[in-house]
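Troubleshooting log. The previous run stalled partway through. Resubmitting the same four chains, unchanged.
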Amino acid sequence: MKDKVRVGLVGSGFISAIHADSLKRCAAAELTAVASPTKGKAEAFAQKYGIAHHFTDYRQLLALDEIDLVVIGTPNYLHCECTVKAAEAGKHIVLEKPMCLTLAEADQMVDACRKAKIKFMYAEELCFAPKYVRLKQLLDSGALGHPVLIKQSEKHDGPHAPHFWDVERSGGGVTMDMGCHAIEFFRWMLGRPAIKSVYAQMGTHVHGSKTRGEDNAILILEFANGVTAVAEESWTKLGGMDDRAEVHGSKGVAYADLLHGNAIETYSATGYDYAVEKAGSTVGWSFTIYEEIWNYGFVQEMDHFVECVKEDKQPIVTGEDAKAVMEVLFAAYESAGTERKVMLPFRSPAAKPIDLWKHELGRAIKPTTT
Amino acid sequence: MKDKVRVGLVGSGFISAIHADSLKRCAAAELTAVASPTKGKAEAFAQKYGIAHHFTDYRQLLALDEIDLVVIGTPNYLHCECTVKAAEAGKHIVLEKPMCLTLAEADQMVDACRKAKIKFMYAEELCFAPKYVRLKQLLDSGALGHPVLIKQSEKHDGPHAPHFWDVERSGGGVTMDMGCHAIEFFRWMLGRPAIKSVYAQMGTHVHGSKTRGEDNAILILEFANGVTAVAEESWTKLGGMDDRAEVHGSKGVAYADLLHGNAIETYSATGYDYAVEKAGSTVGWSFTIYEEIWNYGFVQEMDHFVECVKEDKQPIVTGEDAKAVMEVLFAAYESAGTERKVMLPFRSPAAKPIDLWKHELGRAIKPTTT
Amino acid sequence: MKDKVRVGLVGSGFISAIHADSLKRCAAAELTAVASPTKGKAEAFAQKYGIAHHFTDYRQLLALDEIDLVVIGTPNYLHCECTVKAAEAGKHIVLEKPMCLTLAEADQMVDACRKAKIKFMYAEELCFAPKYVRLKQLLDSGALGHPVLIKQSEKHDGPHAPHFWDVERSGGGVTMDMGCHAIEFFRWMLGRPAIKSVYAQMGTHVHGSKTRGEDNAILILEFANGVTAVAEESWTKLGGMDDRAEVHGSKGVAYADLLHGNAIETYSATGYDYAVEKAGSTVGWSFTIYEEIWNYGFVQEMDHFVECVKEDKQPIVTGEDAKAVMEVLFAAYESAGTERKVMLPFRSPAAKPIDLWKHELGRAIKPTTT
Amino acid sequence: MKDKVRVGLVGSGFISAIHADSLKRCAAAELTAVASPTKGKAEAFAQKYGIAHHFTDYRQLLALDEIDLVVIGTPNYLHCECTVKAAEAGKHIVLEKPMCLTLAEADQMVDACRKAKIKFMYAEELCFAPKYVRLKQLLDSGALGHPVLIKQSEKHDGPHAPHFWDVERSGGGVTMDMGCHAIEFFRWMLGRPAIKSVYAQMGTHVHGSKTRGEDNAILILEFANGVTAVAEESWTKLGGMDDRAEVHGSKGVAYADLLHGNAIETYSATGYDYAVEKAGSTVGWSFTIYEEIWNYGFVQEMDHFVECVKEDKQPIVTGEDAKAVMEVLFAAYESAGTERKVMLPFRSPAAKPIDLWKHELGRAIKPTTT
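Second attempt completed without errors. Output:
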């Protein structure tokens, strides 16, 4: 057992700041290096968080012997290359969602990590959000009987990172950005049974001038154990982030509202600093959240991943899970494109998920259902 | 203009009692007769509500000259015959949901009413529920921008009328029983644009020993104006009736909870008489509703229908609307059966909606998409 | 039994408009006349509501033979004269709250009505608000065990009628304006046991430049049956009217939120017509109420009073009740002035309640506790 | 700076278990010893938490050189002796609420700690509860304007420790047990201005057969800056712990519900392990809390206190604050006994607070208002 786990961050944007804030609160972690290609960004980030090393090329970070764990927070289209190279450098990996752009990339990433015998950990923070952890305990304890319907939704008014508007780099719209949370949430909540089918309804309702990606989506999944799961995702919902889940069982039902339920209800004639992610104005009524990264589970997640490295434990969310999510995302876009339920397992050579919905965006694709 | 509108009830079950209670509160209505086939039931009902005439054969009721308006609250499979005969007798009609068992019946009913030149009114009470009426005003006023997504759901733990377990008499499960509310709600809320397509996910998760009908359903509708609508229906949700709607627009969002939101939050160690429809126990925490039939809009609905007859006005929900709902219900079961999105207009010779999902229940059916 | 009860309104301000709207919905009432001293106001009001007669002198209204019932909605300092004259004219009376300015006036009013043998009805609408009626039923049914603590509060950002800022005409601040609701609510909810004592905390926190009256108040009442009651009143609460009650018993507890609980939760980037009384802006989050006068019980109240006149029944809130409230109001200001609990019965020759708190406002007063 | 702060617990009951659980999550703390007089209890506790030393006499614990910090969780009447002895032994102190039984004891404790130059820290966890910390930030930021009214209440169905029923050992009822939280909450929230006066309403409504202490209390405090504060406390509220606060300001208002607001809303036909403190049954509807000690702030509190010792920092809640709370508690019972507002500063030689309310419980007391 090592004394501290030394961590390098790849990326310096919105999510990397959350990674740094979370790692600062993990007793066993030491933030050692950060890499970001734009000149000056890594340096400023390192200064803000008191990080010893900063680089513009993440390969320099990977070359540092002392780094044990790399946390990847780059744009989606760079995830594959970065993961493979980190695995080759023998570093443990925490990868931000969504995994990558193609199913072939997903295979390549999992293979590279397996070959390098490093831990490939997938940063699905909903599996660590305290309220959702309690929700899973309720279900597991039998309090709700056997599950019938499970729901999760995330809604706000548009992505944090501008590259998400560009489907060439993001691979898709709100389904890629937030639907991936719901998919892993369902798998985790139900104990990861196989997924039988996916149906998706997508539309670009409000942001059509900015993106070819969908800004609203509904996903229906059928699990092998008979449970139906419904995900709702939106980039057009004003008034602050909405993150909710429901579990309907044969003997009961439970509703968990991650943010609104936890908030202070505030009316301010003057407004104030910050209510909640994407809140817009704080004048008038608002729902003031607190300890936001804790409520989302980011701190607990990093704590868990750092401990996995330190104590050589099995992570509860891995690259294999990330790959399973990718498969569903591809199937979801395929469903939106074909207007039918898509059965799993599903394979596709598509260059990015959204090509399966908007065929004109990609090359001609022949989807394959095994 | 007549002084009072004289009303005859066909049926004496759960919903007919609501009709009677509501009509009692309509100044312009006079409850004049009731018909119910089981010996003694109509008599007891007439006594309870102070109704002058009672019959075991509803045709006797139709033969009464003084009756202006007939309110039909019979089991689904009797709706068609009863409606046609009432029209032929020259009575105005209020028909309880769902309309009937086949699309051919729907045609026949609308035709008979048109020919008889009587008002054919469809008792979709959600179009009268005060909270939903206000929700529609919000949307119509532009407060929420243009609509993107609209949701409505009803959930409780099983049908009031036992005949609903028998799909031969009901035509289907929870989609027939409660999904029909959501469909008309969507149409009404959006100003009745055409429906482009329907996708349905159905399952029998808990009540399989009692019924071949689905006890849970998710419906996704696409409207011609680009709006997506999602209905959730359940017969397996414990803890009291749940009736909610959401409107998500480009400039705002509104959430309306018909029952839980209105309730008194009560904790009782001893329990008490009644909390809300299907509440189960009232020991411990419960959500105590009040003026329940008013909150649902039943009184306002009857008031409106009676006024339509009295003043010869155009009802806001008619048999044509009922027929549009039937079309969606058939398309929904077709979608559940074929696992694909079903485009509208949709025609089908099926003997009842559920035959399109569980083919073994019906004769071989060749669905037709025009 | 008369066919219709003919009603005359004295006053044409905020509350008289509510009276008119409510009476319009009472089948047995006929709005026949309105009186208001400012030239043109009664005429405009009569036109708006389709009222046959309008006067600038309410004595002309009282002289109309056909009037059965007078509803008084004038400023507080005119209540006594108006009530006495209406009684002398043999009219039944509905009096808006609060009753009057002095305890001597209260005696005089009750005596005049008793002598004239007319019904003296007191418009405490909370006794008719459907949610509170259900709350009382819960308590009466034993669901909560025996009551221990009962609470009611009303809060908004300042009075509707400008004369309320002037304590010479209103008699006091928010305690007179809204505390009177709580006092009668407590009495009614508990079955009108005697009140043993009153303690009051008052302050002028925000509106000191506009009024010498208190803009915030807390009242603690002890009832003869051992129950404690707490009233909270405010004229400084932004974000819309707040009207809540709680009943804490030995076997349970119940929470009723009259407005916020009933509302649609709305987020609007643009704003819209109306959310709720005193809402301020509707941009951003707001709580959209609907059927507001019904939720408050105004319609039900008028219906009841009209029926009392029509059928010669005993009203559930009378001038005697109004007088009991006055006694508590005087005791409350006495408590705020002496910083001690004040025992009931309490008599005082004060010219208006607030003189007992801010002695410099009145002449020297010697309070009397019998 | 020391590597770890070594902590000894005095007590092994309900609250000491919370102390242990919290300290386990403080990276800088090491649980080293526990003392409890009942044979076997300290040993079992030490075993459960992996604590090296256990004693039946806490003086043996104080004699351990390696102990830096003592956390006192004994019954109230032992707080003084234990604190004085710990100070004399040169240990830093964390003292559980309420401070002690008499104002003379309070003086003695503060003097002993000052003389010993050790840190005397007062375990008011509400000052660390994340939601309330955010509430204070809102107020401090000016979002609500200047404060007008501040409220806090705690309600459940009776004390955890049986000795609390015996006022000889506890000093009083629910005001001593839970009112002390509200008092320090108000002081902390407002920046600790002087308290001008106290008024208290107390009653023994339900548990009269078990205790002479009050089981319900309302406190009204006036602060020197003009703010009114209202505390509500109850030992008779069924359905789970209720812990809420409100801040009403001239420019806004904020509502924080510590438990109910954070909870998952659960309906279970079968019941389950645990919903929330004092929940009673979990069958039917319940409000399922999670990370309860974190939501209350216990972990954060211990973290802060340990850091104060480790880094020699000034604690944010001290023995001086505890003493200020004691003064208000005595004034509150004096108010309940005299039925008047009691001005501060207030001194009293009473042997315990409740003697000032129920004079027959103590010797003849002459209260002193300076």
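Takeaways: DSSP finds eleven helices and 17 strands in chain B. The mean pLDDT of chain B is 91.
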